[in-house]
């Protein structure tokens, strides 16, 4: 879709402004957002080599795109966060590693100077990466970064102190133990809760008696905490006894939903939920409910009583808006396999997505995926929640083709020629208006889901997924827009298919992604041919070392799949969700474009970042709309690793300029 030529002005790190004409171009067939135009003095062709941007924030980054300037930033489609430069400094045996962000809209000729305690470290401005190793640095130093634009040095970022132990430890305070159970911190997310350009962390607390949906028994309550990077607990939300504790019940979405520059938190609630100020819900249908009522039955399931969707202030935790949760449970037997006891009815997923023509984010919650499948999209604007659309596979014959297509996760990508995103729930793709776009012609349920530009020789995005159905292929690669199956594995032969599967570029010798499940060899993403032995794990992924290949993240360890570099283990830290063994969060939240990982470590959570100097320059992945919303859905059900809208790996194309604006 072509849009008009306009003038982009944005403020640089020193509060200066740069302007340029920009034709945002078309959203290219490869879903990279098209040419991106000549915005803000850039070429619009991306960053040249594997380049274009890099990094993310720290406890003391710099002023973000606003940086004290007078304009809000670039004026592309999707609303991204107005982040700071995210300077991070880590002590190593070779000196002090320093990394920082490149914004998605920075001009291609931007370079950077790094200062230690006010003295410049580098001889010439750094233009080919967003990191360095300061061999003369000391653990007591404070680092700042200054952008250089058109040969003119801009203002300094805020100072970043050195992480002396190679990680940032944030103390956490567990909720009080209950009758026979205790609490552990679990899945997490991030958002800029106060609008200062730095991320805060939101953590879910799980009781030790949490249950899978298939298991009877009462559970303790679920809590959500917010923490600053300086270690302050900002608020605690108590979801109450009428929200059952477990991996599938409470996906929570963190994003700036109304465009005020501060993130909100959206989550399913019920009578008895208390907001971050300690008050029971009081808005909309919650105004007259009975907060003392316990709707749990003798088996611990909650099959009666009101169900709500609530948006909370990320800054204070206060309730902002509450409405009825759509789609409601209705008849618990209607969700498949005649299971009336409470298993299939309460399987939830959730994500942020850019669905309407405003470029502001919506929230999408899904209920059911084994058989009956529903999705409901909501906008939070001007203090109110409004339903954008609802899809129900049981509502019509045509919609019935989309039943049984969901995975224990969800993904979002722009698969067509408009700027909005589509919803990919597994074996099906839904257009931004909530209508089914395509579905595979077999039972589409599975446990893993990977959406990106897996195959470099063809346009568009692809979806790799293992399938559980006895009559389904064990795994397949499909087109994200048409659901055409490009290649598939052997049939499952009437047995349950593989429970784990991964697709990513882990082998630099093979173009594009490789793929594997826990019962296959390593497969070429292009055609499914076997090309080697299966990697050591079939779980999470992370960009960690200095090359462009992705590493394996499993439990508390990072391992090389390509044989290059060394491994890493977060000693004293623990993964979440049992055999799923995922971190609290993995995302590009600090430093350059590579990803950080957060683990729970006793009475704290710790953020680990790379300390390997990379020579590639890629804009912060948090300014790629597909990757950014992936961080919102990562905490739901069977956590999956995030993927950007473009390929990162050996021989990659120039990184496209994202079609974004910032608030």
Automatic annotation (TrEMBL):
<feature type="domain" description="Rhamnogalacturonan lyase family 11 C-terminal">
    <location>
        <begin position="171"/>
        <end position="658"/>
    </location>
</feature>
<keyword id="KW-0732">Signal</keyword>
<protein>
    <submittedName>
        <fullName>Uncharacterized protein</fullName>
    </submittedName>
</protein>
<dbReference type="InterPro" id="IPR041624">
    <property type="entry name" value="RGI_lyase"/>
</dbReference>
<feature type="compositionally biased region" description="Gly residues">
    <location>
        <begin position="31"/>
        <end position="71"/>
    </location>
</feature>
<dbReference type="Pfam" id="PF21348">
    <property type="entry name" value="RGL11_C"/>
</dbReference>
<feature type="region of interest" description="Disordered">
    <location>
        <begin position="270"/>
        <end position="295"/>
    </location>
</feature>
<dbReference type="InterPro" id="IPR034641">
    <property type="entry name" value="RGL11"/>
</dbReference>
<feature type="signal peptide">
    <location>
        <begin position="1"/>
        <end position="18"/>
    </location>
</feature>
<dbReference type="InterPro" id="IPR013783">
    <property type="entry name" value="Ig-like_fold"/>
</dbReference>
<dbReference type="InterPro" id="IPR049366">
    <property type="entry name" value="RGL11_C"/>
</dbReference>
<feature type="domain" description="Rhamnogalacturonan I lyase beta-sheet">
    <location>
        <begin position="79"/>
        <end position="163"/>
    </location>
</feature>
<dbReference type="Pfam" id="PF18370">
    <property type="entry name" value="RGI_lyase"/>
</dbReference>
<feature type="region of interest" description="Disordered">
    <location>
        <begin position="23"/>
        <end position="77"/>
    </location>
</feature>
<dbReference type="InterPro" id="IPR028994">
    <property type="entry name" value="Integrin_alpha_N"/>
</dbReference>
């Amino acid at each position: 879709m072509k849009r008009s030529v306009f003038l982009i002005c944005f403020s640089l790190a020193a509060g200066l402004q740069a302007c340029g004409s920009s034709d945002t171009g078309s959203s290219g067939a490869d879903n990279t957002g098209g040419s991106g135009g000549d915005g803000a003095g850039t070429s619009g062709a991306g960053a040249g080599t594997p380049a274009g941007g890099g990094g993310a924030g720290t406890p003391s980054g710099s002023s973000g795109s606003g940086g004290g300037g007078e304009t809000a930033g670039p004026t592309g489609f999707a609303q991204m966060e107005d982040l700071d430069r995210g300077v991070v400094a880590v002590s190593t045996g070779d000196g002090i590693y320093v990394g920082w962000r490149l914004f998605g809209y920075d001009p291609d000729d931007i370079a950077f100077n790094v200062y230690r305690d006010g003295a410049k470290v580098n001889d010439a401005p750094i233009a080919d990466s967003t990191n360095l190793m300061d061999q003369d640095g000391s653990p007591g130093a404070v680092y700042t970064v200054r952008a250089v634009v058109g040969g003119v040095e801009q203002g300094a970022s805020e100072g970043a102190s050195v992480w002396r132990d190679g990680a940032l430890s944030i103390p956490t305070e567990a909720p009080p133990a209950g009758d026979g159970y205790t609490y552990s911190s679990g899945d997490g997310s991030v958002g800029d809760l106060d609008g200062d350009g730095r991320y805060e962390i939101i953590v879910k607390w799980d009781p030790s008696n949490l249950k899978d949906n298939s298991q009877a028994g009462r559970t303790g309550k679920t809590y959500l905490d917010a923490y600053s990077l300086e270690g302050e607990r900002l608020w605690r939300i108590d979801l109450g006894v009428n929200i059952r504790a477990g991996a599938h019940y409470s996906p929570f979405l963190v994003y700036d939903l109304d465009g005020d520059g501060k993130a909100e938190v959206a989550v399913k609630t019920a009578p008895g939920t208390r907001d971050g100020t300690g008050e029971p819900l009081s808005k909309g249908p919650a105004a007259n409910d009975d907060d003392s009522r316990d709707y749990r039955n003798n088996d611990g399931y909650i099959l009666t009583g009101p169900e709500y969707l609530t948006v909370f202030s990320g800054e204070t935790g206060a309730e902002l808006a509450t409405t009825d949760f759509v789609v409601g449970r209705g008849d618990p037997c209607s969700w498949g396999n005649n299971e009336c006891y409470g298993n299939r009815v309460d399987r939830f997923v959730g994500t942020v997505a850019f669905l309407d023509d405003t470029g502001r984010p919506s929230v999408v919650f899904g209920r059911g995926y084994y058989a009956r499948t529903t999705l409901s999209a909501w906008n939070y604007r001007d203090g109110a929640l409004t339903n954008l659309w609802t899809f129900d596979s049981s509502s019509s014959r045509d919609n019935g083709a989309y039943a049984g297509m969901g995975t224990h996760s969800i993904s979002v990508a722009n698969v067509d020629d408009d700027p909005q995103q589509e919803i990919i729930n597994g074996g099906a793709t839904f257009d931004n208006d909530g209508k089914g776009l395509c579905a595979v012609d077999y039972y589409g349920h599975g446990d893993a889901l990977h959406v990106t530009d897996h195959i470099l020789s063809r346009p568009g995005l692809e979806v790799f997924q293992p399938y559980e159905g006895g009559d389904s292929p064990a795994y397949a690669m499909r087109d994200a827009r048409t659901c055409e199956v490009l290649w598939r594995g052997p049939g499952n032969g009437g047995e349950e298919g593989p429970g784990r599967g991964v697709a990513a570029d882990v082998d630099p010798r093979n173009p594009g992604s490789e793929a594997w499940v826990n019962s296959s060899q390593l497969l070429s993403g292009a055609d499914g041919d076997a090309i080697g032995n299966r990697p050591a794990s079939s779980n999470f992924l992370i960009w960690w070392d200095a090359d462009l290949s992705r590493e394996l993240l499993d439990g508390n360890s990072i391992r090389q799949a390509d044989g290059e570099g060394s491994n890493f283990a977060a000693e004293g830290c623990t993964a979440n969700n049992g055999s799923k063994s995922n971190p609290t969060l993995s995302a590009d939240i600090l430093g350059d474009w590579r990803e950080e990982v957060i683990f729970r470590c006793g009475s704290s959570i710790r953020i680990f970042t790379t300390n390997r100097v990379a020579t590639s320059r890629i804009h912060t992945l948090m300014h790629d709309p597909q990757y950014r919303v992936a961080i919102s859905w990562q905490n739901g059900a069977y956590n999956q690793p995030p993927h950007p809208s473009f390929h990162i790996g050996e021989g990659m194309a120039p990184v496209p300029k994202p079609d974004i604006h910032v608030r």
